[in-house]
């Protein structure tokens, strides 16, 4: 019987895993190699070897506030850890060296977890289950072999592709943005100034996208090009990718302004480096380049896991629903947070952790190894057809469908039809509103009594941060209403007169020249 669980990593995924364990009555022990929680979202003045970092001005889109600074996100994580009493289960400055099965693991499912503290002390402990929560931003991807003559200063920022440009512009006279495949650039600000991640992200929107994928894709791309023409701001074969939904877009409000002001110049792929000069594939050369920032992403790595558990399917790990290795006799090891989607990682990691702990407890069973392998291969083929997968972007899922698939396993997926019969007001908000994690707390294990009210009032919390200056609502002008009524009534009267002239005409007039002339008019 599973009771003691080792959790590796104290970032977003690790914290949600600790809480999920406590919710199921398990005893979690979390090992964090650094001195604090936060993982990737904790900015480090001095980058640590082997650990990803974010740049100081990064802004994260979250659902508590409308785009918080990373320091505020870290504050939220501290409040989360304090509120649910998670800190007492975390061992800081403790690195996991290896995770291996015990000799009798086929029967017990237990694991030997070897750790090392900063002082060099090593310890091996036995756990009933393990949750790996180290993410996939671990090893910097430096394609130095692709660029002959590379001589550069490497700055290990976290976000890949175009997001570093804003940071570079703040400290440089000239910035040249070299991009090979390009990307769609979206703003954090959506329609009417609302957070973009809350607009067009309802269950109804997802259904329409599934029914009419080409139409929705074309509409989104057209809307983005209305903001700024991607083909104009960069060579069309560089900035325009075939499909908006094929890869995660770049969320950046500053890039178009930097390009139009000349602070950023878009260039094609780099051909080679010659001393302090950079040669691009189109033959252009930039001399006296001071710094080269490789915004080329990260490779994932789990050096502490046995090689047998790191088999791949395509570019991704061979994991059932991106969580469980299918070859284990006892499903007592889960990978949480190794996921990528057009949506926040927090709800995804939380749902994975809730499912994993239910499996550990025996409340939910997994299919046979053969069935899991078939589903993994099928999902991999589908994923490669739909998304631009690579070593740096090994996997991507559809946000709501993936959450729903795990929620079905846990027993917390909302029944929309039943909600329409039982609580139409709530059903409309669940169907038409943004899909927030409250929806998975309405029923089943982990049910929260405040979930319904939280869903019905979620837009109030979205609008609250804007209310820093109270402005009285303008009174509705009766004259304006009367004007609208007069215009509509007048139009209707003219239409009726026009139809009456056509349909009710005296017989004598029909044969007259006046009628013929009127028809000609």
UniProtKB/TrEMBL annotation:
Belongs to the FMO family. Its cofactor is FAD. Its EC number is 1.-.-.-. GO terms for molecular function: flavin adenine dinucleotide binding; N,N-dimethylaniline monooxygenase activity; NADP binding; trimethylamine monooxygenase activity. InterPro entries: FAD/NAD-bd_sf, Flavin_mOase, Flavin_mOase-like, Flavin_mOase_1, FMO-like. This is Flavin-containing monooxygenase. Broad spectrum monooxygenase that catalyzes the oxygenation of a wide variety of nitrogen- and sulfur-containing compounds including xenobiotics. Catalyzes the S-oxygenation of hypotaurine to produce taurine, an organic osmolyte involved in cell volume regulation as well as a variety of cytoprotective and developmental processes. SUPFAM superfamilies: FAD/NAD(P)-binding domain. It catalyses: hypotaurine + NADH + O2 + H(+) = taurine + NAD(+) + H2O; trimethylamine + NADPH + O2 = trimethylamine N-oxide + NADP(+) + H2O; N,N-dimethylaniline + NADPH + O2 + H(+) = N,N-dimethylaniline N-oxide + NADP(+) + H2O; hypotaurine + NADPH + O2 + H(+) = taurine + NADP(+) + H2O. It is an enzyme of class 1 (oxidoreductase). It comes from Sander lucioperca. GO terms for cellular component: endoplasmic reticulum membrane. It is found in: Endoplasmic reticulum membrane. Keywords: Endoplasmic reticulum, FAD, Flavoprotein, Membrane, Monooxygenase, NADP, Oxidoreductase, Transmembrane, Transmembrane helix. It holds the Pfam family FMO-like. It is a single-pass membrane protein.
